[in-house]
Amino acid sequence: MSTTTLAGREIHVDAEGFLTEYDEWDETLAQQLADQIGVEMTPEHWDVIRFLRADYAETGTTATTRRVNAVGGFPVKQQFALFPKKPGKKMSYIAGLPKPAGCV
Amino acid sequence: MTDTQTQPAVVPDFGDDAETDRKLVIICSKGNLDMAYPGLILANSALGEGIAVDLFFTFWGFDMITKSRQQKLTFTPVGNTAMHLPIGGRMPQWLSPFPGMTWVATKMMRKQIDDLGVPPVDEFLDQIVASGGRLWACKMSADMQKLTLEDLRDDVEDIITAADFMDLSEGAQTLFI
Questions:
Q1: Rounded to an integer, what distance in angstroms lies between the CA atom of residue A64 and that of residue A101?
Q2: Taking the CB of residue B137, how many other CB atoms lie within 10 A of it?
Q3: Is the same domain home to B106 and B130?
Q4: Distance separating alpha carbons of residues B173 and B170, to the nearest angstrom
Q5: Are B149 and B70 contacting, i.e. CB atoms less than 8 angstroms apart?
Q6: Is A23 exposed, middle or buried, given 0-12, 13-18 or 19+ CB atoms closer than 10 A?
């Protein structure tokens, strides 16, 4: 495990840079994570990120694209538009969660 | 914590800068419920990784994109020696062809798939198309089964020939399922 300094404090991350501690995340940090990967946050982006956080708190796993659609109500097309090319990984990175583990 | 090291900010590489031309073509030739899924899962995963995907449906694979059939794919244990019973042991081969076995086995598999949160074939294709995947139908199969574009899902791009398929798959990684 290693730490990195983001938003003026030390954060635990894995080898790829994904946060490993759920409670170290806040929206200021999320903004910075988004900036780092070139995602410009809009209210629509925040809705998806907040859903992912709440869903993880409930289930203990990161929602897949399918679940973000089926349970969160965000159409797959919209997810690809908001987080281009690799929505699953980008959403979880900004939300401070592990990459989705499910296949679908 | 002694094993914790502070390092400069690590940013995951999502490969956005490298303009990838990686392309996957999946030929779906089977119409059994169990054989529909490998192609769907791989297509969906590839799209989620920013890889362009074309699905080409041929022969029995047509059932996956035929409006009247795509919700009715079935699974049969006949000839499948890897079919295990919930109570343990293998399903005896003499039992597999009995009337009603396909119905039972299909019902069981549908439930297992649903329990995993994996969508049925038609919804899975909806998701693949929404993710940017394209669906193509084989001309010879359409002619053999006397099907036209009208009979197929509305999001099927076109019915194409084997020669068209060669253009489509140029430079792509191709999987035959």
A1: 8
A2: 25
A3: no
A4: 9
A5: no
A6: exposed
- Please list the pLDDT of chain B residue by residue as tens digits (177 residues): 444 555 556 777 777 766 678 899 999 999 999 999 999 999 999 999 999 999 999 999 999 999 999 999 999 988 888 888 878 888 888 888 888 989 999 999 999 999 988 999 999 999 999 999 999 999 999 999 999 999 999 999 999 999 999 999 999 999 999
Angstroms from B15 CA to nearest CA on chain A: 9
Q: How many domains does chain B have?
A: 2
Residues B63 and B84 in one domain: no
SS3 state at B17: coil
The verdict on residue B6 lying in a domain is no
52-81 in chain A: CB under 8 A from chain B: 64-67, 69-70, 75-77, 80
Which segments within chain A are labelled E, that is strand? 2-6, 9-13
| Contact criterion met (CB below 8 Å) for A92 and A99 | yes
For chain A, domain boundaries: 2-94
Check if A96 contacts B (Cβ < 8 Å).
Answer: no
Contact call for A65 and B48, based on CB within 8 A:
yes
Range of the structural domain that residue B42 is part of: 22-71+120-177
Chain A residue with the nearest C-alpha to that of B5 = A2
Query: B56 and B126 share a domain?
Result: yes
Q: Is beta strand B5-7 parallel, antiparallel or unpaired with respect to B52-57?
A: unpaired
ipTM for the complex?
0.84
SS3 A87: helix
Measured distance CA(B113)–CA(B103) in Å, rounded: 15
Question: Could you give the CA distance from residue A52 to residue A91 in angstroms, rounded to a whole number?
Answer: 8
